[in-house]
């Protein structure tokens, strides 16, 4: 994060996204409870824990044969910071996701903007559906860093100028770029998260190829890391079955 | 619950439903966190608790003006026992609900059946959309109790007979009545629960009339009692605003 | 369909299900329009029809790489007659499906019941998740036919007896079996229908095995036949890609 | 629309949104068919048309008592042109809506931008939940028009500069503002549209106040006009019942 002074504001340039697991009620046992009601009725946690190999096998079977509903009786809430263009893609996920995002109508938005760092491949090759990304040259990185910063600063200055003149926030924000950071609470369950991860991450174990934009994949990877800790058996089965959501 | 012996099985007759709150991650603070991200960004729990009157006012405002999404970042899982005809209505609720029910394909179903008790009004008057229920006579109650028990026992006997002859459970169950008890896990959030309660309970504070079947209302009342304890401010605001889900 | 006289009613026994395509707004062009807005903006139908091979390729690509949303901008409404136990499974499909079913609260239900015909395999072998169905013996078929009819008639007689005594329909129906026929309007789109078909039909082209109950599969096959006529390119691509919904 | 020449591109400035009804399968009869299956079973169109007053009464009853599902068996597809900040709000509507939007990953985005015209109230007064908008002064309008145009042009120039240097579209677009026009197909049904209109339009008949941003309301008004023509009885009942979606 670098801070650039200006007349009366300074803009922050960031290359990362942040994901915080705010709260959760999610464990592999939730899947087992729900699945076993179909076959043996309600069970105690003791019974569930009696035979770990059997539990592993059941979760694997559910994922393989696409019995999706047992993976819905759990809940994870994330607090996410990322550029608007990431949230635009994120909110295309409608089922099993709940969102509350910072509002440009109710708040003055802060000057925090995205610039790709050196690890971000800048050049797209191939054709739709088969894009490959390759490294940018130092000159390209230099251009992107400088051009973005200038453009962001100018846009934010215009925003501030309109606010100062008494123009409503919801009108003035029109000039703010999709590289501006926003924040939101997003709540999901293991099933809807698996669906997200199947589409928004690339992974060597994936049976079906995905071509996510890198920045939303970064969010996905961080959510995945949290989820893997909460539901290790489910996570292992997801990978073992080609990362296709049931 | 009465048990009636028979050749080789006894049937249970019940008039109640049961609802157990299995797990939850649900509090009024979840609503406040999500709502305030729109206006002031992420906040600590301390800040949230600083001004209880303000919290109450915010939740009330959200409900009144139908800002529904802040009520979705929470989760409640219920284990429910009720007759099949209740579950048939229950599963019409698609959004914000997850279900896993006992399966007549995987399990031999147990002979537990519903009969209305004396408190159940047996007689329907009026026309569609304006039905009123009135007390049944003792003779009607006597008839219903006896006729149902006979019919249930005969149906279950037929079921057992087919199973004994090697017929698949999923075929044999065709004769089992919708008064048979089933069980399921149902997971929801405060918003989807409010929607359910608005339609499936009658209440003097309701702005819009509802005409639920009594048996699903009994399930609704038990879920409502659990939820009211978990999220008292939200519950109060739901009632204060005419029990219309946002 | 056979009709059996009785005191004052006769019951119908059926072994089939019916599916009528009531209305639709669904064609392969709907998929193409929606998909191409991503890449080339709005297009005329003429442009779309110019290059059929390209259209076929695009639909195939969308299905293969799980770009599901272009398959949602279309609509099919079916009128379906089937036993209650089929509708119980059907309504587990929540997303992209709308339902309106005949109500046992508002109508006196008619005595039409399901009995499996000779083509229905009656005997289940193996264990959960790996069930195989094999032919029933003539004796088993004879038993099932006779036992079901007797049980259905007795249940319906009890229903009528309670109605005659002034008991509300919604109470009296408790004794009616899940083999009773009901009817409903069900509206879906190509994406939600593919999801249904992937789970509720068995097919040699399916990449993932499914074990649907035969009776819901019969409904699925009839919907599939209608859909295949409306959207032949999409249908071919669904089969070519292992019958996994995008 | 004014066009401003530049080095090698010219930007379009617009103040309107456009909504085209691309296709539809939607009529009041669809509601009646679906509703009557509950009470009298399948009916012919002739029967439905026999008694127009009764039809009107039934639709009114359904809306008043929140029987929402009969309003889902219909479909409307719109092609919409509007600024990104409108689509950001639009896509918060998850249930009963399908979207396909122009993609900044697959296409070079065109320089068409939003500026408010004289009818747009520029100044926000009051506090969250009770905002009122009042006229801007000529000086404010002049500032907004000029500042936005300058900022948009500079941002688009930066975008073009990065593209010219070989930077991927998905990276370069970070600098583009949310006032940029995008286009999408959006498919809904009468129920999900009513929900949208209840929240995203202000109307003297509304029982519950809404405070939509003017630009999304403009989209809503145009969709409403199309829908009112297709389903006049449903539309009248929506207004008569306070514009609350069932």
From TrEMBL, chains A, B, C, D:
The protein's name: Flavin-dependent thymidylate synthase
Chain residues that bind FAD: 69, 92-94, 101, 189-191, 195
Keywords: FAD, Flavoprotein, Methyltransferase, NADP, Nucleotide biosynthesis, Transferase
Binding-site residues, dUMP: 89-92, 101-105, 173, 200
Organism lineage: Bacteria, Bacillati, Actinomycetota, Actinomycetes, Kitasatosporales
BP GO terms, sorted: dTMP biosynthetic process; dTTP biosynthetic process; methylation
Oligomer and partners: Homotetramer.
This enzyme's EC code(s): 2.1.1.148
Active site (record annotation): 200
A GO MF label: thymidylate synthase (FAD) activity
Pfam families in the cross-refs: Thy1
Keyword Flavoprotein: yes
PANTHER family on file: FLAVIN-DEPENDENT THYMIDYLATE SYNTHASE
Cofactor note: Binds 4 FAD per tetramer. Each FAD binding site is formed by three monomers.
Enzyme kind, highest EC tier: transferase
PROSITE patterns xrefs: THYX
Family statement: Belongs to the thymidylate synthase ThyX family.
Purpose of the protein: Catalyzes the reductive methylation of 2'-deoxyuridine-5'-monophosphate (dUMP) to 2'-deoxythymidine-5'-monophosphate (dTMP) while utilizing 5,10-methylenetetrahydrofolate (mTHF) as the methyl donor, and NADPH and FADH(2) as the reductant.
Pathway the protein acts in: Pyrimidine metabolism; dTTP biosynthesis
Requisite cofactors: FAD
Catalytic activity: dUMP + (6R)-5,10-methylene-5,6,7,8-tetrahydrofolate + NADPH + H(+) = dTMP + (6S)-5,6,7,8-tetrahydrofolate + NADP(+)
Organism in which the protein naturally occurs: Streptomyces cyaneogriseus subsp. noncyanogenus
InterPro entries: Thymidylate_synthase_ThyX, Thymidylate_synthase_ThyX_sf
């Amino acid at each position: 994060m670098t801070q650039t002074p200006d007349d009366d504001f300074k803009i922050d340039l960031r290359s990362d996204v942040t994901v915080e697991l705010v709260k959760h009620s999610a464990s592999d046992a939730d899947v087992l409870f729900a699945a076993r009601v179909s076959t043996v009725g309600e069970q105690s946690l003791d019974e569930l824990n009696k035979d770990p190999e059997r539990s592993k096998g059941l979760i694997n079977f559910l994922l393989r044969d696409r019995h999706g509903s047992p993976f819905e009786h759990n809940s994870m809430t994330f607090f996410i910071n990322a550029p608007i263009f990431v949230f635009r893609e994120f909110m295309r996920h409608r089922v099993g996701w709940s969102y509350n995002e910072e509002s440009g109508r109710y708040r003055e938005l802060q000057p925090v903007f995205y610039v790709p760092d050196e690890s971000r491949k800048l050049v797209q090759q191939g054709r739709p559906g088969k894009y490959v990304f390759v490294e940018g040259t130092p000159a390209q990185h230099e251009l992107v860093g400088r051009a973005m910063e200038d453009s962001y600063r100018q846009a934010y200055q215009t925003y501030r100028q309109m606010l100062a003149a008494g123009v409503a926030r919801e009108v003035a924000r029109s000039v703010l770029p999709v590289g501006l950071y926003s924040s939101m609470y997003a709540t999901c369950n293991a099933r809807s998260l698996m669906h997200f991860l199947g589409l928004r991450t690339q992974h060597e174990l994936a049976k079906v190829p995905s071509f996510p934009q890198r920045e939303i994949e970064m969010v996905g990877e961080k959510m995945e890391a949290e989820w893997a800790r909460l539901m290790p058996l489910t996570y292992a089965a997801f990978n073992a079955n080609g990362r296709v959501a049931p």
